[in-house]
Description:
By secondary structure, the chain is α+β, with helices and mostly antiparallel strands.
Amino acid sequence: xxxxxxxxxxxxxxxxxxxxxxxxxxxxxxxxxxxxxxxxxxxxxxxxxxxxxxxxxxxxxxxxxxxxxxxxxxxxxxxxxxxxxxxxxxxxxxxxxxxxxxxxxxxxxxxxxxxxxxxxxxxxxxxxxxxxxxxxxxxxxxxxxxxxxxxxxxxxxxxxxxxxxxxxxxxxxxxxxxxxxxxxxxxxxxxxxxxxxxxxxxxxxxxxxxxxxxxxxxxxxxxxxxxxxxxxxxxxxxxxxxxxxxxxxxxxxxxxxxxxxxxxxxxxxxxxxxxxxxxxxxxxxxxxxxxxxxxxxxxxxxxxxxxxxxxxxxxxxxxxxxxxxxxxxxxxxxxxxxxxxxxxxxxxxxxxxxxxxxxxxxxxxxxxxxxxxxxxxxxxxxxxxxxxxxxxxxxxxxxxxxxxxxxxxxxxxxxxxxxxxxxxxxxxxxxxxxxxxxxxxxxxxxxxxxxxxxxxxxxxxxxxxxxxxxxxxxxxxxxxxxxxxxxxxxxxxxxxxxxxxxxxxxxxxxxxxxxxxxxxxxxxxxxxxxxxxxxxxxxxxxxxxxxxxxxxxxxxxxxxxxxxxxxxxxxxxxxxxxxxxxxxxxxxxxxxxxxxxxxxxxxxxxxxxxxxxxxxxxxxxxxx
Length: 624
């Protein structure tokens, strides 16, 4: 073997897999290093992908030519489109996955990707010469050289698990932690800290009384994650189940609070605000009499269920006693308890928007090492890091996404501009242009950009062109086809919509909240004929056209606002001003601008503590 590569990716989690596949698919000789080849793409916490805003990220990963959407669809055992009662900017796909099938699909992709190789080992040291990364050393005593390194260590750097007062070193249950890299990077001047996350117990489904719970089935329609037509959901579809804690549950939990690592000083680091442990819920929301829980199946052939909403690091017996007070779980048998885990992360303001570190050239960070939480956030970062690692090896312009182009762009800009003081989770509220970043048009926004840099392949690009053309044809038909009252009023009466007094274009009727294209097609044979001419993915195309027509005014207005703000993103500032010498800037502005070293005026304007007057001063200085 020749241990010399273009790109080395450390860690085969969700960030690492996307980074490795992206670099290899663009033509870099890539090595993926993992502790355990049998756990590539392991779902460490819940067996699900997507959700509010997270689903949009997965659609973006797929549109860019990433793998998460494909793996998720092929391992899906339930699919739901969340928030459909709200506007399309809020629609978010979510899928339950068969945990073992998810790993199998990842292994299948990685071991069959040209230029992508796997090495089972643990990295103990980075090789750095003159502030440039050149390779790694491993626990097996191997030195492996590379032009670029992507570090995606997840929760393994200094990982420490908490089961009540019992503490075990590890990056995940039954898997060892990794040591050495954090200490090395801190000696080089990197700022590091600790974060905490947690996971619930796993329950034997044979001991659950589902008759006391509410069934939550999935949807069986055209929605899925991947835009590729040949990617399907073929596994048996399964239901989730809803139950609730009660006052007796809370009483049992309170008995154990004095032994909780979160409250007795054992855990010092910060946990995720938006996914609190059950013991945190009963403390913060002490007035609530119950909390909703979801039992999620782990696989088609498994009896294992994940108790979503019951993350805990309480002692084992406390967890068991509390769980046995919940409807349907009175006789529950646990496969294993919940636990908390503390791990090292690095302040992401030490990164460029490419996710390359500012201190060490060709070293990239992606995933939880940057202070994020979630498979989807990790996958999005990994994809961007892998793309830019390839570019650093072979030349070309850096690849970044702006806030008005993708949730991935919002995610990375938030990280490198604002930093984190708790595990970062994506929400639609974080995106100021969320109507432009809908889940239905991720391919329209991103596939051509990816195709132009060599990641998205020809077949994906051809499918995009077909979709664009069919959208255009259908919109033109609706805008040009006139309908007379005599031909449509009976239908309008049947749906309690106002009758026409004069003729109008079909597109005017699409704008009405009571109707849509499919409904109108039942009353207008010419429209049905037009729909029948759409050979591929008609439901997806119809839905996207309907959104474009119904929300056209809002979309246009948001684009104009985005374009206006975007001008500040083209005003380069990095290295042009000595902030400490500008006395007209506030002290806080001087300190934060010096620390973060923003690339553009736009990025500077988003740094917490930078006021509009500070931005105006910078613009005046640049004007001079």
